[in-house]
Structure formats: C-alpha cells, structure tokens
C-alpha cells in the first residue's frame, strides 16, 4: 500500500475523472481470456503500483527549484520531444500519445487547442480525438462536454481497428469498456452534476452505478446493491441476485477506469466493494482505508463499510496468526515426537547390540571351556 498511499496523499480529492486515454507509451495491463473477458490485476504489489505511477504524473514539484518526480519527468520529456516536432506532423498514434500525456500532466487546455480543429478530420481525428477531448473536458470538471465528446466518439466515429501494439482482442475489450461502461459513467456524472445544487455535500454521493450496464439513452434497471442474502452489508459476501448483475470481468473494468483517471475516490470505493464481493475483504479494507484517510473522502457509507471490513480483516489476521501458532505448535510437537522416537530407536539399537555382545561372550566362554576340557582329556 505504501506507493499508493504516497501518491494519493498528494492528490486533491475533488479532481474530476478522465475519459479513456490511448497512448503507445503505456502498456495494456490485462490478460484477455478465450471468452474475451479481462482478468483483473492482483491488487497488492500489482495494480496499486501501476495506478500510483499514473497518479504521480499529476503531482507538481512543491517549488520551482525542486525537480519533478520520476514519473512526471518521463512524461514531460516525451511531451517536449513531440512538441518540438510539431503536433501537426505527428502520426495518429503519436498524436494520441502526446495528448494523453498532456491530460495526465494536467495540461487540458493544450489538448483542447490541439484536438478541436482535428476532431472532424477522418484522417487525423475520429475516435481518438473525440475520446481525448472528452478526457480533457472531464479533467476540467466539464462533465456535460465530456459526455458529449464521448458520445461523438462512440456513436459517430469508427473505433480504431489497430493502435500501437494492441491486439485485436485487447481493442475489442477496450471498445466494450468504452461503450458499455465508460460512456454511461460519463453520462451519469454529467446528469449528476447538472442536478447538483450549490452547497450539496460530497458525503451524500452514492457509489457509481456502473452495473448493470445501460448505454444511453437506455436507463439501467435496479442498480447493484452490495448486500448479502440477508440484506445487510457483510464482509466477503454478495447476494446471489446482486451477483447476477456483474459481468465476469467487473473488477478489471473498474481497474481500467482507474488507470484512465487514478484520482477518483468514488471509483476506488467501487473497486473496494467489488473486491469484497469477490471474497477478498482484506484488499477491500485496504482500499477503503486509503479512500477514507489518505484521500479524505468522508462519505459516511464508505466509513461504515470500512469499519465492517477492517473488523473482518483484523479478525482474519488474528485467525491466521492463531492458525500459524497452531501449525507451529504441531510442527514442534511432531519434531519432539520424532526426536523421542529417534532416542527410543537408539536405546533399542544399543540394547540389541548389548544383548548380542553378551550372547557372543557367553558362547565364546562355553566354546573356550569346551576346548580346554578336550585338551585336558587328550
């Protein structure tokens, strides 16, 4: 958790999300199975490090004298190299890489200036331009504009048939995420922002209703509720009826959204709930702990769920410690039994040897006496 906590501590909780970002310089992080679903990244020591690295790009030095952090420095160097060549001369993949880097660096205005003239150009614009325009608007808190640009990307543009090193299966999965989950996500955030009155508190926010999916203008059915079969919030459990609302790769989908915008506490909240629904309540507790304390998200629902998960995680830690102590005790007892058995074996061995030696001495004695007797007789 240390890399994630270190980065989240430097991020502002209120920063908006970003739309889908495509860059030839950022790897695809998921494995796609034979059915076209993505396998999630292990959280601790895997996903937490990746998302922390992306999040660190936005952290500026505290003063002009301080150098940028390594992640930010690498992005700045790449941007400067491409800007020196001129955005107009860059091939589409590298233009996407430039604007993706600018968004991660917090320079959304430059993205708008570069892409707005190109968006309707089928050779230089299209899906990638609209998607990155959506990202730029979202980073400025312009949710309606972001949703509109995402709609242009999904409904009025052709999704790329190739991009950098991405395979066909990876592009197919990303297209599904963009259409079935990310566009509804932006549309919901835009609707939510439009209906929010001045003074509304963030503590009243609900978890993002991504599941089940509903592509605009279709409205989703009853949203997923993170409750067990008895209707209560329970560590490591999810009601069967609620589980049916989840796709097989729900965790990977939310992980991808977080890789696109690694600052959003509500998406981290959702990720934590999905881990808990999958039975990994200890990772869920760690995530909600970071959301509550490190990111400063004071939603009472999150705080209560964190309490439930932390208690379960602590109980599991104690149970593991007790089980480990029991196993160690068993191993020590087994070792003691083996040592005692070895000692008993040694005793039996030397007893048998002693008896054998004594018997041999007796036999030799009688044989010697018989020889002496015969010699005398002779």
Q: Characteristics of this structure?
A:
mainly alpha; 378 residues; two-stranded antiparallel sheet; 13 helices
Poorly predicted tracts of residues? 1-18
H/E element order: HEEHHHHHHHHHHHH
Strand fraction equals under 5%
Class per helix and strand makeup: mainly alpha
Count of helix runs = 13
- Strand neighbour order, sheet with most strands: 1-2
- Using DSSP, what is the number of strands? 2
End-to-end separation:
99 Å
| Rg over C-alpha atoms, rounded to the nearest angstrom | 33 Å
The oligomeric state of the chains shown is single chain
The best one-word shape is: elongated
Mean pLDDT across residues = 89
Q: What's the structural domain tally?
A: 1
Largest sheet: 2 strands, antiparallel
Describe the structure.
This protein is mostly helical. The chain has one domain (2-298). The chain is 61% helix and 1% strand. It has a two-stranded antiparallel sheet with strand order 1-2. A hairpin with a 5-residue loop joins strand 1 (31-32) and strand 2 (38-39). Helix 7 runs antiparallel to helix 8. The longest helix is centred in the last third of the chain and has 78 residues, at 300-377. The radius of gyration is 33 Å and the shape is elongated. The model is unreliable at 1-18 (pLDDT under 50).
Quick overview:
By secondary structure, the protein is mainly alpha-helical. It has helices at residues 2-8, 43-56, 70-85, 92-104, 108-115, 127-139, 143-155, 168-195, 240-243, 250-260, 265-277, 281-294, 300-377; strands at residues 31-32, 38-39.
